[in-house]
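ok new one. same drill as before - structure tokens go in, u give me an amino acid for every spot. 654 of them this time. try not to just spam alanines like last time pls lmao
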């Protein structure tokens, strides 16, 4: 398969996309069923040609065809096979094609899944998805074509190779997972837009996309967690979240999507919040496109972003197009979106969900403002005022703690109204344990938000466990089941509810890990072989320095022996200092990189970085960090995924 075939496939996909929209628009006027069937098949044709183009580019990367500019820029002969595949999303044009590829998978599934149902909704669902495909096809055909030939008057013998930071197994998983989340919200948005066009305000469109939304939310959550894991394992600064603009770009749609997930439960059960749900799903999809704009426009400085390009204005135009079309249509349907029912009580679960949603949106706005402030300040005053992590932490920490508290309060509230006796019965134990926790942590010597965060974690955990306990007790008394059977059957009968509680428990564990950041310790020093340094009750001895030449880099490896304050052996650490493309005669093309090593325990991580080396004196320059409770972040992530899978798992009758 030649690169020319890939370019032709993209051109055909673009042509088929235009025909799809044109055909289905005519169908919406005359309702000729034959036109709908033609439109369906044309839409499947768009996806087919995008699949073909993606497979062709992947093949060019694998065989190292350096006649293709993209292949020459992001791979080399020495690049390991797995990273030749992951190079597909390493650069601008390849990642846009990969965006299209994921969207085409979702579009194909949506069309095939709904061939014989939702006949009123599907024409505009397909139009919405195809318009998004057309936008990305315009970019890949006419702005940044992944099949552009290499511009050189000589044979290119080898490529530039992949950035060392991307030669990490997590980066072979993180971007596809994040894209599955980003792109996945195209489907719920398409159903919402179609419902607006058709004036369909029934819960039908909500029921059609509830599982889609949960799947997209799961992948976006996993993508964010994997991104934090990659940053922690690879970047060498000892953290996993820096409020970087591109990190924020994935976090903002996660916030509005989480609010939407909670909110659609109310619309399904009580037929409330119709307008609010429309706003949330439009915002979520818009923020997904806006996040893609932030990554590719070059307006933000970020370790995650692509190089500066001309894509910024085009992306921004599409963002405004989505907002104007969606909110304009929504404004024209305001009468249809009025909910027939009202929230009856402040102490109802509906009220708790709504307040929870408002906090999510406030947090999203705070992150958006902090992310855009440097650009706005430069546009107005001519100087870029940088907003760093301290600003985000100061603003978002109290908001995050409020959300943490609400994850415990929500499950304890009843639908419609929670009576005073019920309030006392359900809240007494969690509140007593909450105040006992505050006193205990103060006596230990903790201060400020650390006390509040840990105490709220205890409160929420108590509330969730009490809900499980009450459910199990009811089943044991009613059906005479064992503890194990009662637990399994209880979850099986109401998977969305108890899966959600498990997700909340995962969030609690993650907050435990976040709070541990308050106790971080670090030290930079230089060592010769045999010398020792001390930090936080540990001794670090440089045992030896060795060298190794590998297929795509040269490495200096340090061996650090770690012992505790009693002289007991803890572990050996092997951080490395690497030079990628070390055989390149052009010194400027060689890329140094520190490959760190981490010893992880449940209560702390020992994090080692080999910064540089003095070869003549055999001195290693090192940085050691003691990071408490980091593992709880990853444990919380596992629990979050597990809870979401339970909520997603269909019941037998489904």
């Amino acid at each position: 398969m030649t690169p020319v075939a890939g370019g032709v496939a993209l051109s055909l996909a673009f042509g088929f996309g235009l025909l799809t929209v044109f055909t289905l628009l005519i169908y919406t006027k005359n309702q000729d069923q034959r036109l709908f069937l033609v439109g369906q098949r044309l839409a499947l044709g768009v996806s087919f040609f995008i699949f073909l183009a993606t497979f062709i580019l992947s093949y060019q990367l694998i065989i190292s065809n350096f006649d293709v500019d993209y292949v020459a820029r992001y791979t080399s002969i020495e690049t390991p096979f797995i990273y030749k595949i992951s190079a597909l999303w390493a650069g601008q044009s390849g990642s846009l094609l990969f965006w299209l590829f994921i969207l085409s998978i979702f579009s194909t599934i949506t069309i095939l899944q709904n061939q014989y149902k939702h006949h009123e909704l599907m024409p505009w669902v397909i139009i919405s998805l195809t318009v998004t495909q057309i936008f990305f096809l315009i970019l890949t055909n006419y702005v940044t074509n992944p099949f552009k030939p290499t511009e050189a008057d000589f044979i290119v013998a080898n490529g530039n190779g992949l950035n060392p930071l991307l030669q990490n197994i997590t980066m072979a998983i993180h971007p596809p997972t994040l894209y599955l989340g980003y792109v996945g919200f195209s489907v719920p948005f398409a159903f919402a837009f179609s419902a607006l066009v058709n004036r369909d305000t029934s819960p039908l469109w909500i029921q059609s996309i509830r599982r889609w939304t949960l799947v997209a939310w799961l992948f976006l959550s996993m993508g964010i967690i994997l991104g934090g894991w990659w940053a922690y394992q690879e970047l060498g600064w000892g953290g996993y979240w820096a409020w970087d603009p591109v990190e924020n770009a994935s976090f903002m749609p996660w916030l509005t999507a989480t609010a939407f997930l909670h909110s659609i439960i109310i619309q399904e059960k009580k037929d409330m919040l119709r307008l609010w749900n429309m706003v949330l799903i439009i915002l979520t999809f818009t923020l997904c496109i806006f996040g893609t704009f932030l990554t590719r426009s070059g307006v933000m400085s970020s370790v995650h972003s692509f190089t500066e390009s001309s894509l910024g204005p085009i992306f921004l135009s599409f963002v405004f197009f989505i907002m104007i079309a969606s909110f304009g249509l929504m404004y024209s349907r305001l009468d249809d979106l009025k909910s027939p029912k009202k929230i009856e009580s402040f102490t109802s679960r509906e009220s708790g969900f709504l307040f929870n949603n408002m906090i999510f949106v406030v947090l999203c706005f705070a992150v958006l403002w902090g992310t855009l402030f440097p650009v706005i300040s430069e546009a107005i005053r001519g100087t870029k005022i940088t907003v760093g992590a301290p600003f985000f932490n100061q603003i978002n920490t109290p908001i995050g703690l409020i959300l943490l508290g609400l994850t415990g309060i929500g499950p304890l509230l009843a639908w419609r109204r929670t009576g005073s006796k019920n309030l006392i019965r359900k809240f007494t134990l969690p509140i007593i344990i909450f105040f006992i926790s505050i006193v205990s942590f103060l006596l230990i010597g903790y201060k400020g938000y650390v006390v509040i965060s840990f105490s709220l974690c205890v409160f929420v955990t108590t509330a969730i466990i009490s809900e499980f306990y009450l459910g199990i007790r009811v089943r044991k008394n009613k059906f005479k089941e064992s503890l194990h059977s009662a637990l399994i059957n209880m979850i099986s009968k109401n998977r969305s509810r108890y899966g959600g509680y498990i997700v909340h428990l995962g969030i609690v564990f993650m907050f435990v890990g976040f709070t541990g950041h308050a106790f971080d310790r670090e030290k930079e020093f230089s060592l010769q072989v045999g010398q020792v340094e001390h930090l936080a009750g540990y001794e670090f001895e440089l045992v030896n320095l060795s060298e190794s030449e590998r297929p795509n880099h040269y490495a200096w490896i340090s061996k650090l022996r770690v012992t505790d304050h009693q002289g007991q052996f803890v572990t050996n650490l092997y951080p490395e200092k690497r030079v990628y493309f070390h055989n390149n005669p052009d010194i400027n093309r060689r890329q140094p990189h520190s490959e760190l090593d981490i010893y992880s325990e449940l209560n702390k991580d020992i994090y080692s970085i080999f910064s540089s080396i003095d070869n003549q004196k055999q001195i290693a320059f090192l940085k050691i960090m003691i990071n408490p409770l980091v593992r709880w972040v990853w444990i919380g992530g596992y629990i979050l995924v597990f809870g979401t899978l339970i909520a997603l798992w269909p019941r037998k009758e489904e």
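The longest helix spans residues 349-381. and btw Residues 303-308 have pLDDT under 50 and may be disordered.
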